[in-house]
Amino acid sequence: MIRYEDVGGVHIKYLHHCPRQLWLYTRGVRPEHLSATVQLGEAVHDSTYTRHSPVDLGAAKLDFVDGRQWVHEVKSSARPTPGDRAQAMHYCHQLHRLGVEAQGAILHYPATRRTERLPYTEEAAAEAEADIQAVLNVAAALSSPDRLTRSRCRGCSFTDYCWME
Ligand code: SF4
Question: Which pTM was predicted?
Fold first, then answer.
């Protein structure tokens, strides 16, 4: 069973996208390697900001932290999602737990040349903590959460798994 300290950025992102996705992931279902969306994400990571090294926080791996202690995350999608924002705040939260005074996060969207700046506030910290608890609650459920409506599953790497019937 997943522990508090094991909750990482992927868990937070899946929590906000689809609790069923999170539940499957916590049980070892890993169809990502089949997903073109994930491959695109990896390609963007490989070709963007190559001068920076990823920061490994154990369960969470973020793209890099600048000298002013802002977290930077590079995304392959066109615009920010609630999951992107929650994931970024989770990284700030984890850094604070380790004694690093992260100021916030900057999300980069090279496909649309867009950036979003998210300060790490007390409210953000409380939400990040609540998200960790929500991940633990979903993971502890004995049966899988319901599927989303089909239209909301577009691009999800678990589509074949959920809709194979
Ligand atoms: S295919 Fe749909 S229901 Fe299944 S995990 Fe993905 S978003 Fe959730």
Answer: 0.84
